[in-house]
Amino acid sequence: MKKLFIVLLTLCTFVGVKADEGMWMLPLIQKLNIQKMNGMGLTLTAEDIYSDQQVSLKDAVVVFGNGCTGVMVSNQGLVFTNHHCGFDAIQQHSSVDHNYLKDGFTAEKLTDEIPTPGLSVKFLVKIQDVTERIISQLPDTLLGHKRTEKQDSLIRVIEKETEKGTNYSARVKPFYSGNEYYLFVYEEFTDVRFAYAPPTSIGKFGGDTDNWMWPRHTGDFSVFRVYCSPDGKPAKYSKDNVPYSPKRFASISNQGYQPGDYAMIMGNPGTTSRYLSSWGINNRMNSTNQARIDVRGAKQDVWHSFMRVDEAINIAYASKFARSSNYWKNSIGMNKAVTKLGIINEKKAEEKAFAAWVKQSPEREAKYKNVLRTLEDGYTKNYPYNRALNYLNESLLNGVEMPRIATQVERIISKNLGEKELQTQIEAIYKDYYPTVDQATLVAMLNVYKKSVDADALPEFYNTIQKKYKGDYTKFAEYLFGKSDFTSLDKITKAIKNKKVDFSKDPAIIFSQEVRKTLESIRSQEFNKNSERIKDAERLYESGIKAMSAETGKPMYPDANSTMRLTFGKVGGYNPADAVTYKYYTTTKGILEKEVPGDEEFDVSPKLKTAILEKNYGAYIDKKTGEMHVAFLSNNDITGGNSGSPIFNAKGELLGLAFDGNWEAMSGDIVFEPDLQRTINVDVRYILFVMDKIGGAQRLINELSIK
Which of 247, 317, 549, 648 has CA atoms 20 to 30 A from the CA of 392? Predict the structure, then answer.
């Protein structure tokens, strides 16, 4: 009995929920969370937060674009999200003559709001548990690709059945590595228009230097508007469309916050791997993360060398650079945090506890005995393949653009489109593309890939480079870009017009084919077999962890998978190191302290500087401190995809927008660190101050419900 008690005590540490850890499923709030949330100060009920029968707070939270969150803030369709979430749209509309990235943008009247093709906003309609319907058709003996094929077939049936006769879209998502399944139903609006953005000197203040860091002084927000048909339904862009009146929009709090105040975030976190094994973490660090660090670092150096001397290139590559650098720095921080915090050893201790739990019963041994051994064997055997695949994807497949563009153009031409439609689609592909930049990038990508992988992972053209160009990557790049018809829009347009496009001999197409041939070679039969074994073992491992959690009576949450979740916590600072204490908010004083005139990251616009020096903060100043707050901290549990998520107070009023995590806890996608992990939020009062005093957007502010 004593031995069993010790094992269970160890398991409580393993599966128990720490502090404010957790990205919780909305339909389960009543069952798992509401008592604790109310005890921390929340005044709402579970049904006030999520209901598929009546209007609830979830109806104000949206999926913004393809990877962010936003919040409805007016009954006329206004959406607040992060500046970096709206960055693609802002860049799309920018030019040298109208540089909205540099100067910001204010739609002075409704008709000035700019349609943004390709941008959408999705509202969550309902969530439904469909686990039994799927699991009942997936016996434990069904494994590998056969299980995946059957699962996907069942999912498609449910999705089509749900969508039939509606204007909704349906997605079934696996949870706990395929131990549970939930159906998510959405209503999507595709007429979304650009209404306001601060200049990048505010919206991206601090740039890459401050990214993932605290203290932070970034006004990371932008404003869009959702439009619909006159009858309130989703519709393609039309001049006859009208602002959408949502079921629910968030009221805004102008009252601020104190340490220990309840804070709640709803959003769409991308992916976490909280139940990943020690072997999986090692693979993540030395394969996925290290490839991002090495390849993106080299690519970004090339891009930046062109961007800093040419405004047009800077505009064209701004969004690409931001997407690349975000998870480049994240990977650096994650690897450092995993090492510093000893996370692999923590995971090994958890695995040891799991093995001890398995030994407590013959039934468990029969089911879980080989799980850990299979994970270790699978990850160990697949490591060299995974490393090569990650470096190939980051560099030669996705790091250089022109060969990929050639493949896209080839696909479009094969559709036999009309001349006008063909030209339109090809022009879209070449938008924001500069061959001089890409040619220099290719040289860097060839070099970094060669240095990072074994000889048997090199495409055939490396032999050509060695034999014909004596190993000179620059000369090979000159040949490729000089001879290919796909180097520029002008060249391919002329070649198509003269009917001289020869896909079989074009060097860019040949380059792509050789890269993909290498990709398929790395994805060998052994690699695929081991990958399937890992996937099956991870599903079984999480099944065991769920069983352990149930025995200890502790609630357990699933990993993030780009579906709406709730995380609750408190406002507060932290102590990242000995004798270092971080306050829970920053002020405009810090903007001037960081100012570096003319610097691309820390320049302060004259208008903002004047407002700060004159303390022209209006009603948005914090009444308790007498200062203009910029950003604040909370201990909510978030990850990528939560960008733009609303952070609410105990009454469900908007305090600000989540936009980042902190450097000391970059391992947060793998392990939640309660003493270190913090969410960085832009204060809604700073948003209002910038819109009002800097942007002159009083028309938009008048739509808001400010309390």
Answer: 317
Active-site residue flag, 220? yes
Where along the chain do its domains lie? 33-110+192-271+559-701, 121-189, 400-523
Cα distance between residue 395 and residue 445, in whole Å? 5
Residues 6+ apart with CB under 8 A from 125: 52, 168, 185, 186, 187
CB 74 within 8 A of CB 226: no
The strand pairing partners of 114, in sequence order, are 194
CA–CA distance, 266 with 243 (Å, rounded to integer): 24
Residue 364: pLDDT above 60?
Answer: yes
Reading the block at residue 264, the tokens are 């709640």
643 has catalytic annotation = yes
Cβ neighbors of 473 (< 8 A, separation 6 or more) are 442, 443, 446, 447, 465
Q: Which two tokens mark 393?
A: 């994807």
The one catalytic residue among 83, 84, 217, 629:
84
What are the CB-based long-range contacts (under 8 Å, 24+) for 132-136?
133/158, 133/181, 134/158, 134/172, 134/181, 135/179, 135/180, 135/181
Q: Which of 120, 643, 645, 667 is catalytic?
A: 643
Pinpoint the alpha helices (H) of 484-567: 489-497, 507-522, 525-552
Residue 576 to residue 569: CA distance in whole angstroms: 19
pLDDT in tens, 103-118: 999 999 999 999 999 9
The two tokens of residue 157 are: 């049936």
Kindly name the residue from 20, 220, 669, 692 that is annotated as catalytic: 220
Tokens of 596: 């570096």
Tokens representing 96?
Answer: 């040298």
C-alpha distance from residue 331 to each of 72, 273, 306, 338 (Å): 32, 14, 24, 10
pTM of the predicted protein model: 0.93
φ, ψ (nearest 5 deg) of residue 33:
-125, -25
Q: Dump pLDDT digits (tens) for 649-682.
A: 999 999 999 999 999 999 999 999 999 999 999 9
Instruction: Give the phi and the psi of residue 109 in degrees, each rounded to 5.
Output: -140, 170
Alpha-carbon distances of 452 from 441, 514, 519, rounded to whole Å:
17, 18, 15
The DSSP 8-state label assigned to residue 17 in this structure reads: P
**What's the pLDDT tens digit per position in 16-48?**
444 479 999 999 999 999 999 999 999 999 999
DSSP 288: I
Q: How would DSSP label each residue in 650-688?
A: TTS-EEEEEEEE-GGGGGGGT---TTT--EEEEEHHHHH
For residue 495, give the amino acid letter.
A
Report which DSSP code applies to 456. G
**pLDDT beyond 90 at 195:** yes
User: Is residue 48 among the annotated active site residues?
Assistant: no
For residue 42, give the nearest of 653, 666, 686 by alpha carbon.
Answer: 653
Question: For 51-108, what is the HEC assignment?
Answer: CCCCCCHHHHEEEECCCEEEEECCCCCEEEECCCCCHHHHHHHCCCCCCHHHHCEECC
pLDDT top residue among 419 and 186: 186
- Is residue 484 helix, strand or coil? coil
Whole-angstrom CA distances from 250 to 41, 58, 77, 113, 513 are 19, 10, 11, 22, 51
Residue 185, strand partner residues:
126, 170
pLDDT tens digits, 212-227 = 999 999 999 999 999 9
Task: Give the CATH number of domain 33-110+192-271+559-701.
Answer: 2.40.10.120
pLDDT of residue 83: 98
Question: What is the C-alpha separation between 444 and 692, in angstroms, rounded?
Answer: 45
Which pLDDT belongs to residue 566?
98
